[in-house]
Adenine DNA glycosylase
Amino acid sequence: MSRTSTSNLPRLESGWVEAIQRNLLAWYDQNKRDLPWRINQDPYRIWVSEIMLQQTRVDTVIPYYERFMERFPTLGDLAGADEDEVVKAWEGLGYYSRARHLHAAVREVTASYDGEVPQQWEEISRLKGVGAYTAGAILSIAYDQRVPAVDGNVMRVFSRWLALWDDVAKVSTRKRIETLAIQVIPADRPGDFNQALMELGALICSPLAPRCDHCPVRDECHARQRGIQAELPVKSKAKPPVPVAVTFGWITDGSRILLEKRPPEGLLAGMWGLPTVENNPNEKTLGETLQQALEKEGFPVELGASLGELEHVFSHRRWRVTIVEGDAESGMEMLSDRYQWVQPGKWDRLAFPNVYHKAIRLVSEKREGIGGIQGRLF
Protein backbone atom coordinates (compact mmCIF):
# COMPACT_ATOMS: atom_id res chain seq x y z
CA MET A 1 0.00 0.00 0.00
CA SER A 2 1.50 3.34 -1.01
CA ARG A 3 1.60 6.05 1.59
CA THR A 4 0.85 9.59 0.45
CA SER A 5 2.90 12.47 1.86
CA THR A 6 1.51 15.98 1.99
CA SER A 7 4.81 17.21 0.57
CA ASN A 8 3.89 15.89 -2.91
CA LEU A 9 0.11 16.30 -2.89
CA PRO A 10 -1.39 17.93 -5.99
CA ARG A 11 -3.96 20.68 -5.71
CA LEU A 12 -7.22 19.31 -4.35
CA GLU A 13 -9.79 18.47 -7.01
CA SER A 14 -12.56 21.06 -7.20
CA GLY A 15 -15.44 18.58 -7.26
CA TRP A 16 -14.15 16.91 -4.09
CA VAL A 17 -13.75 20.30 -2.38
CA GLU A 18 -17.28 21.37 -3.32
CA ALA A 19 -18.75 18.11 -1.99
CA ILE A 20 -16.88 18.51 1.30
CA GLN A 21 -18.06 22.09 1.70
CA ARG A 22 -21.68 21.38 0.83
CA ASN A 23 -22.14 18.22 2.89
CA LEU A 24 -20.15 19.29 5.93
CA LEU A 25 -21.88 22.66 6.28
CA ALA A 26 -25.32 21.10 5.82
CA TRP A 27 -24.51 18.61 8.60
CA TYR A 28 -23.16 21.39 10.83
CA ASP A 29 -26.29 23.48 10.40
CA GLN A 30 -28.37 20.57 11.66
CA ASN A 31 -26.06 19.19 14.36
CA LYS A 32 -23.91 21.95 15.83
CA ARG A 33 -23.89 22.04 19.61
CA ASP A 34 -25.44 24.91 21.53
CA LEU A 35 -22.29 26.32 23.14
CA PRO A 36 -22.11 29.60 25.10
CA TRP A 37 -19.35 31.09 22.96
CA ARG A 38 -21.46 30.64 19.83
CA ILE A 39 -24.19 33.11 20.82
CA ASN A 40 -22.51 35.85 18.75
CA GLN A 41 -19.30 36.74 16.93
CA ASP A 42 -17.75 38.79 19.73
CA PRO A 43 -14.00 38.25 19.21
CA TYR A 44 -13.32 38.55 22.94
CA ARG A 45 -15.78 35.78 23.83
CA ILE A 46 -14.39 33.57 21.07
CA TRP A 47 -10.82 34.28 22.19
CA VAL A 48 -11.53 33.31 25.80
CA SER A 49 -13.23 30.09 24.72
CA GLU A 50 -10.37 29.06 22.45
CA ILE A 51 -7.80 29.59 25.19
CA MET A 52 -9.88 27.60 27.68
CA LEU A 53 -10.41 24.79 25.18
CA GLN A 54 -6.70 24.18 24.74
CA GLN A 55 -6.01 20.69 26.11
CA THR A 56 -9.41 20.70 27.85
CA ARG A 57 -12.70 19.01 26.93
CA VAL A 58 -15.72 21.09 25.90
CA ASP A 59 -17.96 19.69 28.66
CA THR A 60 -15.33 20.62 31.25
CA VAL A 61 -14.88 24.13 29.90
CA ILE A 62 -18.54 25.21 29.73
CA PRO A 63 -19.18 25.96 33.45
CA TYR A 64 -15.76 27.61 33.86
CA TYR A 65 -16.38 29.72 30.76
CA GLU A 66 -19.78 30.87 31.96
CA ARG A 67 -18.45 31.87 35.38
CA PHE A 68 -15.44 33.62 33.85
CA MET A 69 -17.58 35.60 31.41
CA GLU A 70 -19.98 36.55 34.18
CA ARG A 71 -17.03 37.93 36.14
CA PHE A 72 -15.29 39.54 33.12
CA PRO A 73 -18.02 40.16 30.53
CA THR A 74 -15.90 42.48 28.38
CA LEU A 75 -12.30 42.71 27.30
CA GLY A 76 -11.99 45.91 29.31
CA ASP A 77 -13.20 44.18 32.45
CA LEU A 78 -10.53 41.51 32.10
CA ALA A 79 -7.79 44.00 31.24
CA GLY A 80 -8.60 46.06 34.32
CA ALA A 81 -8.57 43.12 36.73
CA ASP A 82 -5.74 42.16 39.05
CA GLU A 83 -3.78 39.11 37.93
CA ASP A 84 -4.51 37.18 41.12
CA GLU A 85 -8.22 37.78 40.55
CA VAL A 86 -7.94 36.43 37.00
CA VAL A 87 -6.05 33.33 38.12
CA LYS A 88 -8.61 32.74 40.88
CA ALA A 89 -11.41 32.85 38.29
CA TRP A 90 -9.45 30.28 36.26
CA GLU A 91 -9.02 28.00 39.27
CA GLY A 92 -9.63 24.34 38.48
CA LEU A 93 -8.98 24.54 34.72
CA GLY A 94 -5.24 23.97 35.06
CA TYR A 95 -2.48 25.15 32.73
CA TYR A 96 -2.58 28.49 34.52
CA SER A 97 -0.07 30.12 32.19
CA ARG A 98 -2.99 30.31 29.74
CA ALA A 99 -4.82 32.68 32.09
CA ARG A 100 -1.76 34.86 32.63
CA HIS A 101 -0.98 35.06 28.93
CA LEU A 102 -4.61 35.90 28.12
CA HIS A 103 -4.60 38.62 30.76
CA ALA A 104 -1.34 40.11 29.43
CA ALA A 105 -2.65 39.95 25.87
CA VAL A 106 -5.94 41.73 26.55
CA ARG A 107 -3.98 44.44 28.34
CA GLU A 108 -1.85 44.78 25.21
CA VAL A 109 -5.01 45.04 23.11
CA THR A 110 -6.28 47.77 25.43
CA ALA A 111 -3.00 49.69 25.32
CA SER A 112 -2.11 49.27 21.63
CA TYR A 113 -5.36 48.65 19.76
CA ASP A 114 -7.91 50.79 21.63
CA GLY A 115 -9.53 47.69 23.07
CA GLU A 116 -10.36 46.19 19.67
CA VAL A 117 -9.08 42.66 19.00
CA PRO A 118 -6.80 42.99 15.95
CA GLN A 119 -8.10 41.82 12.59
CA GLN A 120 -4.67 41.44 10.95
CA TRP A 121 -2.85 38.11 11.19
CA GLU A 122 0.52 39.75 11.86
CA GLU A 123 -0.89 41.75 14.78
CA ILE A 124 -3.09 39.16 16.46
CA SER A 125 -0.49 36.41 16.23
CA ARG A 126 2.00 38.61 18.12
CA LEU A 127 -0.22 38.68 21.20
CA LYS A 128 0.96 36.57 24.10
CA GLY A 129 -0.46 33.06 24.05
CA VAL A 130 -2.03 33.42 20.60
CA GLY A 131 -0.61 30.77 18.29
CA ALA A 132 -1.51 29.94 14.71
CA TYR A 133 -4.61 27.92 15.64
CA THR A 134 -6.05 30.53 18.03
CA ALA A 135 -5.36 33.36 15.58
CA GLY A 136 -7.08 31.41 12.80
CA ALA A 137 -10.07 30.59 14.97
CA ILE A 138 -10.63 34.21 16.04
CA LEU A 139 -10.11 35.69 12.57
CA SER A 140 -12.37 33.17 10.84
CA ILE A 141 -15.17 32.92 13.42
CA ALA A 142 -15.29 36.54 14.59
CA TYR A 143 -14.20 38.33 11.42
CA ASP A 144 -15.21 35.92 8.62
CA GLN A 145 -11.69 35.72 7.27
CA ARG A 146 -10.69 32.77 5.09
CA VAL A 147 -7.86 31.45 7.22
CA PRO A 148 -7.24 27.94 8.59
CA ALA A 149 -7.60 26.97 12.25
CA VAL A 150 -5.82 23.64 12.51
CA ASP A 151 -5.89 21.81 15.85
CA GLY A 152 -5.69 18.11 16.70
CA ASN A 153 -9.27 17.45 15.59
CA VAL A 154 -8.69 19.08 12.22
CA MET A 155 -5.40 17.26 11.62
CA ARG A 156 -7.13 13.94 12.36
CA VAL A 157 -9.95 14.74 9.93
CA PHE A 158 -7.59 15.74 7.13
CA SER A 159 -5.35 12.75 7.73
CA ARG A 160 -8.34 10.48 7.14
CA TRP A 161 -9.94 12.50 4.35
CA LEU A 162 -6.76 12.38 2.29
CA ALA A 163 -5.22 9.15 3.67
CA LEU A 164 -2.11 10.97 4.87
CA TRP A 165 0.61 9.12 6.76
CA ASP A 166 2.45 12.19 8.03
CA ASP A 167 3.13 12.24 11.78
CA VAL A 168 0.62 14.72 13.23
CA ALA A 169 2.88 15.26 16.26
CA LYS A 170 5.28 17.18 14.00
CA VAL A 171 5.01 20.92 13.43
CA SER A 172 5.79 20.37 9.74
CA THR A 173 2.64 18.24 9.38
CA ARG A 174 0.46 20.92 10.94
CA LYS A 175 1.88 23.50 8.52
CA ARG A 176 1.25 21.23 5.54
CA ILE A 177 -2.32 20.54 6.62
CA GLU A 178 -2.84 24.30 6.94
CA THR A 179 -1.95 24.63 3.25
CA LEU A 180 -4.50 21.93 2.45
CA ALA A 181 -7.19 23.40 4.69
CA ILE A 182 -7.05 26.79 2.99
CA GLN A 183 -8.03 25.08 -0.27
CA VAL A 184 -11.20 23.68 1.33
CA ILE A 185 -12.43 26.65 3.39
CA PRO A 186 -15.26 28.43 1.52
CA ALA A 187 -15.07 32.17 1.09
CA ASP A 188 -18.68 32.77 2.18
CA ARG A 189 -18.69 30.83 5.49
CA PRO A 190 -15.10 30.40 6.71
CA GLY A 191 -15.90 30.57 10.42
CA ASP A 192 -18.77 28.09 10.19
CA PHE A 193 -16.64 25.73 8.12
CA ASN A 194 -13.76 25.80 10.61
CA GLN A 195 -16.19 25.13 13.44
CA ALA A 196 -17.79 22.34 11.42
CA LEU A 197 -14.37 20.72 11.03
CA MET A 198 -13.81 20.90 14.80
CA GLU A 199 -17.32 19.57 15.43
CA LEU A 200 -16.82 16.67 13.04
CA GLY A 201 -13.58 15.72 14.78
CA ALA A 202 -15.18 15.94 18.21
CA LEU A 203 -18.46 14.14 17.50
CA ILE A 204 -17.91 11.80 14.53
CA CYS A 205 -14.27 11.46 13.42
CA SER A 206 -13.07 10.48 16.90
CA PRO A 207 -9.56 9.23 17.63
CA LEU A 208 -10.18 5.55 18.37
CA ALA A 209 -13.56 4.60 16.93
CA PRO A 210 -14.68 6.93 14.13
CA ARG A 211 -18.42 6.77 13.48
CA CYS A 212 -18.02 6.56 9.73
CA ASP A 213 -21.60 5.46 9.08
CA HIS A 214 -22.80 8.78 10.55
CA CYS A 215 -20.23 10.95 8.76
CA PRO A 216 -21.70 13.47 6.30
CA VAL A 217 -18.60 13.29 4.08
CA ARG A 218 -17.93 9.54 4.25
CA ASP A 219 -18.15 9.21 0.47
CA GLU A 220 -15.30 11.72 0.10
CA CYS A 221 -13.04 10.11 2.72
CA HIS A 222 -10.06 8.34 1.14
CA ALA A 223 -9.17 6.49 4.34
CA ARG A 224 -12.67 4.99 4.58
CA GLN A 225 -12.56 4.00 0.91
CA ARG A 226 -9.36 2.05 1.64
CA GLY A 227 -10.51 0.72 5.00
CA ILE A 228 -7.61 2.34 6.88
CA GLN A 229 -9.47 4.93 8.94
CA ALA A 230 -8.61 3.15 12.20
CA GLU A 231 -4.89 3.36 11.37
CA LEU A 232 -4.89 7.12 10.95
CA PRO A 233 -3.69 9.57 11.95
CA VAL A 234 -0.11 8.57 12.60
CA LYS A 235 1.09 10.11 15.85
CA SER A 236 4.41 9.43 17.52
CA LYS A 237 4.14 8.76 21.23
CA ALA A 238 4.94 11.59 23.60
CA LYS A 239 7.48 11.00 26.31
CA PRO A 240 5.85 9.84 29.55
CA PRO A 241 5.79 12.28 32.48
CA VAL A 242 8.97 12.22 34.54
CA PRO A 243 8.34 10.96 38.10
CA VAL A 244 9.44 13.43 40.78
CA ALA A 245 9.38 12.91 44.55
CA VAL A 246 7.89 15.98 46.22
CA THR A 247 7.13 17.00 49.80
CA PHE A 248 4.33 19.32 50.90
CA GLY A 249 4.44 20.88 54.34
CA TRP A 250 1.30 21.08 56.46
CA ILE A 251 2.77 23.73 58.75
CA THR A 252 0.45 25.01 61.46
CA ASP A 253 0.41 27.66 64.15
CA GLY A 254 -2.74 27.01 66.11
CA SER A 255 -5.54 27.04 63.54
CA ARG A 256 -3.48 28.89 60.94
CA ILE A 257 -1.87 27.16 57.96
CA LEU A 258 1.31 28.32 56.23
CA LEU A 259 1.01 28.98 52.50
CA GLU A 260 3.77 29.54 49.97
CA LYS A 261 3.68 31.37 46.65
CA ARG A 262 5.28 29.47 43.79
CA PRO A 263 8.13 31.11 41.83
CA PRO A 264 7.09 33.46 38.99
CA GLU A 265 8.38 31.06 36.33
CA GLY A 266 7.97 27.34 35.84
CA LEU A 267 5.35 24.83 36.96
CA LEU A 268 2.30 26.43 38.69
CA ALA A 269 4.07 29.78 38.43
CA GLY A 270 2.92 32.47 40.85
CA MET A 271 0.20 30.37 42.46
CA TRP A 272 -0.38 29.71 46.15
CA GLY A 273 -0.13 26.32 47.81
CA LEU A 274 1.41 24.43 50.66
CA PRO A 275 5.20 24.81 51.08
CA THR A 276 6.65 22.53 48.41
CA VAL A 277 10.05 21.08 47.52
CA GLU A 278 11.37 18.46 45.16
CA ASN A 279 13.18 15.99 47.37
CA ASN A 280 16.92 15.53 47.41
CA PRO A 281 17.51 11.90 46.34
CA ASN A 282 19.95 11.55 49.25
CA GLU A 283 17.37 12.68 51.79
CA LYS A 284 17.87 10.63 54.96
CA THR A 285 14.82 11.63 56.99
CA LEU A 286 11.24 12.46 56.15
CA GLY A 287 10.89 16.11 55.13
CA GLU A 288 14.63 16.85 55.37
CA THR A 289 14.75 18.82 52.09
CA LEU A 290 11.67 20.82 53.04
CA GLN A 291 13.08 21.63 56.47
CA GLN A 292 16.35 22.83 54.96
CA ALA A 293 14.51 24.99 52.40
CA LEU A 294 12.39 26.66 55.08
CA GLU A 295 15.43 27.25 57.31
CA LYS A 296 17.17 29.04 54.41
CA GLU A 297 14.17 31.37 54.32
CA GLY A 298 14.72 32.11 58.01
CA PHE A 299 11.74 30.01 58.96
CA PRO A 300 12.67 27.10 61.27
CA VAL A 301 10.00 24.48 61.81
CA GLU A 302 9.76 21.16 63.55
CA LEU A 303 8.48 18.52 61.15
CA GLY A 304 6.66 15.40 62.25
CA ALA A 305 4.92 12.45 60.68
CA SER A 306 3.53 11.87 57.22
CA LEU A 307 -0.13 12.79 56.82
CA GLY A 308 -0.55 10.91 53.57
CA GLU A 309 0.63 10.48 50.00
CA LEU A 310 -0.84 11.25 46.60
CA GLU A 311 0.08 11.37 42.92
CA HIS A 312 -0.66 14.15 40.47
CA VAL A 313 0.19 14.13 36.77
CA PHE A 314 1.14 17.26 34.83
CA SER A 315 1.96 17.21 31.13
CA HIS A 316 5.66 16.54 31.73
CA ARG A 317 5.87 15.70 35.43
CA ARG A 318 4.33 13.10 37.70
CA TRP A 319 4.48 14.33 41.27
CA ARG A 320 4.65 11.66 43.95
CA VAL A 321 3.76 13.73 46.97
CA THR A 322 4.27 13.10 50.66
CA ILE A 323 2.50 15.53 53.00
CA VAL A 324 4.40 16.15 56.23
CA GLU A 325 2.98 17.87 59.28
CA GLY A 326 4.97 20.51 61.10
CA ASP A 327 4.77 23.10 63.85
CA ALA A 328 6.17 26.59 63.51
CA GLU A 329 8.28 28.13 66.20
CA SER A 330 6.44 30.75 68.19
CA GLY A 331 6.70 34.34 67.05
CA MET A 332 7.05 33.55 63.35
CA GLU A 333 5.02 36.51 62.10
CA MET A 334 7.59 38.32 59.98
CA LEU A 335 7.51 36.34 56.73
CA SER A 336 8.76 37.18 53.26
CA ASP A 337 6.28 37.94 50.48
CA ARG A 338 6.48 34.29 49.46
CA TYR A 339 4.71 33.11 52.61
CA GLN A 340 1.61 33.97 54.56
CA TRP A 341 -0.42 32.57 57.42
CA VAL A 342 -4.03 31.97 56.51
CA GLN A 343 -7.03 31.02 58.57
CA PRO A 344 -9.09 28.24 56.93
CA GLY A 345 -12.07 30.52 56.36
CA LYS A 346 -9.92 32.96 54.36
CA TRP A 347 -8.46 30.49 51.89
CA ASP A 348 -11.15 30.89 49.29
CA ARG A 349 -9.79 34.27 48.16
CA LEU A 350 -6.64 32.58 46.80
CA ALA A 351 -6.28 30.44 43.68
CA PHE A 352 -5.13 26.92 44.46
CA PRO A 353 -3.98 24.44 41.80
CA ASN A 354 -5.79 21.11 41.87
CA VAL A 355 -2.85 19.25 43.37
CA TYR A 356 -3.12 21.35 46.55
CA HIS A 357 -6.88 20.88 46.69
CA LYS A 358 -6.21 17.14 46.62
CA ALA A 359 -3.69 17.47 49.43
CA ILE A 360 -6.03 19.53 51.61
CA ARG A 361 -8.86 17.07 51.09
CA LEU A 362 -6.57 14.17 52.00
CA VAL A 363 -5.43 15.84 55.22
CA SER A 364 -8.97 16.92 56.06
CA GLU A 365 -10.13 13.34 55.88
CA LYS A 366 -7.28 11.96 57.97
CA ARG A 367 -6.86 14.46 60.77
CA GLU A 368 -9.44 14.92 63.46
CA GLY A 369 -10.50 18.52 63.88
CA ILE A 370 -9.58 19.58 60.32
CA GLY A 371 -12.78 18.44 58.65
CA GLY A 372 -14.31 21.88 59.12
CA ILE A 373 -11.74 23.32 56.75
CA GLN A 374 -13.16 21.40 53.86
CA GLY A 375 -16.59 22.90 54.16
CA ARG A 376 -15.28 26.45 54.10
CA LEU A 377 -12.66 25.96 51.38
CA PHE A 378 -14.52 23.90 48.79
